[in-house]
Predict the structure.
Amino acid sequence: MTRKFVVVMMLFVVLAAGCVGVEETMTTPEMTVALAVGNVTANLALPSDTGAVYMHIVNNSAADDALIDAAIDGCGTIELHEMINDNDTMVMRQVEGNRIPIPAGETVMLQRGGLHIMCIGKTGEFTIGQSVPVTLTFEKAGTMEVMADVLDPAKLGMEMNGGGMGTDEAP
Ligand SMILES: [Cu+2]
């Protein structure tokens, strides 16, 4: 049964995403996935060798996908991170398998205090107001280039604050 095969293949996705139901998605791996990415912002102007990029990813298709990599000129290493509550302290860590599931029909928010793209070993010079190309790699949809607006870190607040400060994200 094709459906059973798909269900087995998606078991990890379902577990990782929580309670995502396997609906009537008789999809094939070759199916085109319609993804829309918006509100791409970057906290890259800090005097630090790290930074973070945030965005909303909308999966308009009937097939699950996943963000599995990203590339930014000036970032030595990129990891996909999440913030978790570890004994009442918010800490960040790489997501399992460096993979952020983007379930069919859902919107996944990469935002302060949650999922984010982590720039490690920053070597580039990033200035507030600049637009930076970010190449995203999805499991099924392949690569997509989006532009991230580098925001004022003072308005973004520090990532480790968990997003409680500086909610004005206007550039
Ligand atoms: Cu991080």
Remarks:
- Residues 52, 81, 92, 116, 118 surround copper (II) ion (CB under 6 Å).
